[in-house]
């Protein structure tokens, strides 16, 4: 079968690109892996056309690599040789906002920021938020079970999904655009596809749960003496602020110092130096009641010695300025040079020991290593950025072996919110048992017996 010709007949003009016609951007993602030119790039317009693509490729045994906004960091959307890249960039649009049910039905190629703005215009909040909001697609967010800044309050992406439409490997469309919070009629099959990175099916539409738009947001940038105080602050914030607490971001001193000294447009909100820094965000429904509660909480933390200092936002501009410090991660290439970024999960009581041991091990192996630690500690997510100076090529394999070995020793996970893709697949056994991996392979074979959907990603056939 001439697969490209069959795809052209099925999708019509302007929807199939082959050979050198495939745009450069569709040959890799943000993982930094070398680009691969696929056999063809297809841009279907709806679920029926996605189904046509998969039926043709399934019959011919040709691999299909789904692509959203191409902002993934693990190689999950990077084509494999001889594959068809299936871009969802034309499956865009918010189909419905149901005010009574507090839901939104959206097509999977829609950028996250577009989804957020549509919800806000209707007086609702889409809780998912991350730095790539302007580029990433909601389908990719769901396929990777994205986390982001506010997991401590709203949960991961999978907690925000009520219904899905998915196209299976053989072209079968399975749809249940459920809007009900309570629906226990049989298996909750949508969970198979949330976080599967396009290896089990292609998400084409989703029903998202919406929340009331917060009427008031504030933040405090805090300096703390040590990690024990950070943990105490987290415990007290959960108890004292309850559902008002929307973010709890922790920065180690090296992170803070590098950002304040070198990042563009960033200023220090605190005087002096501290052992740790925390950005604490609060979202409320009525400022006149919630603001005094936050102020009283911070005063208690200062009186108890948990906080050494704190700057409280006096305006939305202040909130944005505080977040600019945490979001300066986008500038690491300029701040420290060539580097690797790691997305780890660790039990909170093991995080400090892990960071200390990781920095010591890296410096023992590579003199002068710059290791930067920060993360969404409230949901056990730790990010690590590593730069080894004075080498012609950053030693990814050796650095990864050190870090992932320590992750396993401390009972953590190699992926908290970025997925597995290609880069992390060899290390999956550091975070999942042999029995779990066998179960994953069983699911993969059941739903994709020809192994055409994103082959080689997440879990390899064994």
Strand order of the largest sheet: 15-12-14-13-17-18-16
CATH class identity of the largest domain:
Alpha Beta
CATH architecture of the largest domain: 2-Layer Sandwich
In the residues, how many domains can be counted? 4
- End-to-end CA span: 29 Å
CATH topology of the largest domain: Uridine Diphospho-n-acetylenolpyruvylglucosamine Reductase, domain 3
The overall pLDDT average reads 95
How many helices in DSSP terms?
A: 14
Q: Identify the overall geometry.
A: globular
**Rg, Cα atoms, Å:** 23 Å
Counting DSSP E segments of at least 2 residues, the number of strands comes to 18
Helix content: 25-40%
Low-confidence stretches: none
The largest sheet, given as strand count, sense and whether it forms a barrel, is:
7 strands, antiparallel
Structural class: alpha+beta
Percent of residues in β-strands: 15-25%
Structure commentary:
This protein is about 30% helix and about 20% strand. It is built from 14 helices and 18 strands. The chain has a 7-stranded antiparallel sheet with strand order 15-12-14-13-17-18-16, with helices on both faces. The chain has a 5-stranded antiparallel sheet with strand order 5-6-10-8-9. Strand 8 and strand 9 form a beta hairpin. The chain starts with a helix and ends in a 15-residue tail after the last helix.
């Amino acid at each position: 079968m001439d697969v490209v010709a069959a795809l052209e007949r099925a999708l019509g003009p302007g929807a199939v690109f082959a050979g050198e016609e495939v745009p450069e951007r569709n040959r890799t993602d943000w993982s930094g892996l070398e680009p691969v030119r696929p056999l063809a790039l297809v841009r279907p317009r709806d679920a029926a056309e996605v189904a046509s693509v998969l039926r043709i490729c399934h019959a011919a045994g040709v691999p299909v690599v789904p692509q959203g906004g191409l902002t993934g960091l693990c190689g999950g959307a990077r084509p494999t040789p001889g594959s068809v890249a299936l871009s969802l960039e034309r499956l865009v649009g918010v189909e419905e906002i149901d005010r009574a049910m507090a839901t939104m039905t959206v097509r999977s190629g829609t950028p996250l920021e577009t989804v957020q703005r549509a919800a806000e215009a209707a007086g609702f909040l889409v809780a998912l938020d991350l730095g790539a909001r302007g580029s990433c697609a909601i389908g990719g967010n769901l396929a990777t079970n994205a986390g982001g800044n506010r997991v401590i309050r709203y949960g991961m992406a999978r907690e925000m999904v009520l219904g899905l439409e998915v196209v299976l490997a053989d072209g079968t469309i399975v749809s249940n655009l459920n809007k009900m919070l309570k629906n226990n009629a049989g298996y909750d099959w949508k969970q198979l596809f949330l976080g599967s990175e396009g290896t089990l099916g292609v998400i084409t539409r989703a029903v998202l749960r919406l929340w009331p738009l917060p009427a008031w947001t504030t933040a405090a940038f805090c300096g703390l003496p040590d990690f024990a105080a950070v943990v105490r602050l987290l415990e007290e914030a959960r108890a004292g602020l309850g559902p008002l607490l929307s973010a709890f971001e922790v920065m180690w001193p090296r992170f803070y110092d590098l950002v304040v000294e070198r990042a563009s447009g960033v200023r220090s909100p605190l005087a002096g130096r501290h052992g740790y820094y925390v950005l604490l965000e609060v979202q409320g429904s009525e400022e006149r009641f919630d603001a005094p509660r936050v102020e009283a909480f911070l005063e208690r933390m200062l009186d108890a010695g948990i906080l050494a200092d704190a700057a409280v936002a006096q305006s939305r501009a202040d909130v944005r300025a505080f977040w600019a410090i945490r979001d300066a991660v986008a500038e690491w290439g300029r701040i420290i040079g060539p580097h690797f970024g790691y997305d780890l999960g660790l039990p909170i009581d093991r995080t400090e020991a892990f960071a200390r041991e990781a920095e010591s091990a890296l410096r023992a192996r590579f003199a002068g290593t710059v290791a930067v630690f920060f993360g969404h500690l409230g949901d056990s997510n730790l990010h690590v950025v590593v730069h080894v100076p004075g080498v012609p090529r950053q030693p990814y394999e050796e650095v990864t072996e050190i870090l992932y070995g320590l992750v396993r020793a401390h009972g953590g996970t190699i992926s908290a919110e970025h997925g597995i893709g290609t880069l992390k697949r060899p290390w999956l056994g550091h975070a999942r048992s042999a029995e779990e991996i066998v179960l994953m392979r069983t699911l993969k074979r059941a739903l994709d017996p020809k192994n055409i959907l994103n082959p080689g990603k997440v879990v390899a056939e064994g």
